[in-house]
Amino acid sequence: MSGTRDITPEGAETDFRKRMSYADYLNLDQVLNAQSFLSDSPDELLFIIQHQTSELWMKLAIHEISSAMRAIRANDLQPAFKMLTRVARIFEQLNGAWDVLRTMTPSEYTSFRDDLGQSSGFQSWQYRAVEFLAGNRNIAMLKPHAHKAETLARLEAILSEPSLYDEAIQLLARNGFDIGDDAKRDDWRASRVENDAVTMAWKAVYASPREHWMLYELAEKLVDFEDYFRRWRFNHVTTVERIIGLKRGTGGTAGVSYLRRMLEVELFPELWKVRTVL
């Protein structure tokens, strides 16, 4: 016998001249043509797709964190748990992406690094939004976005409201816990100071999980999120050092030494401290 067999799944639509197709729904023509090359290096595509897909995952993380914050504010914790679980899994996915980028050697990256100019992941406004939403509110980090009014306005809007961790602490107060100076906070832009009263409140939750199950579960969802977020930062440092060593970053940062300092930043400090005081 000769020739080819044309096998189409039974019932599958094949005529999309007047119907929306998979590619139409996802705007795939725009997505797959969004990679513009500045060099002749075949490895530049990996670099571009790594960062574009990371930005897409961060867009989803921002959406889920914002939704979780609204749910906590409304004392609707079950949906918030699902959203925060999804955020942790998003960062697990982002962690896996570093494994792909680490296949790029220093020689390969050097072949197009100069073409990047001053552009750098340090300038990602979505990464900054994730940090601001979670509670790491370093106002100086607005400066790289000052040239874009719309982006700056988005970040300022986040800073004008409580963070995810602020919402969790306010929830403690609504459930009768003493949260000390956090009860007086009204300037959400400012970085909050670690608070012993909040540590003691979380200690009470962890000491009697059955009595405070919803707060206990919320605390663990937050720790899950920060756990994966920390791993993402660590993998970032390792990947950068593997590819460029101790060179300065393209955007002017100190590179690896700057990223190592970021490893020391805690999003939810009292939730880590409580493990020591229990």
Q: Would you mind describing this structure in some detail?
A:
With 278 residues, the chain is mainly α. It has a single domain (42-121, 162-277), classed as Methane Monooxygenase Hydroxylase, Chain G, domain 1, CATH 1.20.58. The chain has helices spanning 22-25, 28-32, 44-73, 77-101, 106-113, 125-134, 149-159, 164-174, 196-207, 213-244, 256-262, 269-277. The termini are far apart. The relative contact order is 0.11.
Low-confidence stretches: none
- Residue fraction in strands: under 5%
What's the mean pLDDT score?
91
The ordered string of helix (H) and strand (E) elements is HHHHHHHHHHHH
Shape: globular
Write the layout of secondary structure elements.
Layout: H1 22-25, H2 28-32, H3 44-73, H4 77-101, H5 106-113, H6 125-134, H7 149-159, H8 164-174, H9 196-207, H10 213-244, H11 256-262, H12 269-277
Q: What does this entry show, briefly?
A:
The protein is mostly helical and 278 residues long. It has twelve helices and no strands. The chain is globular and about 70 Å long.
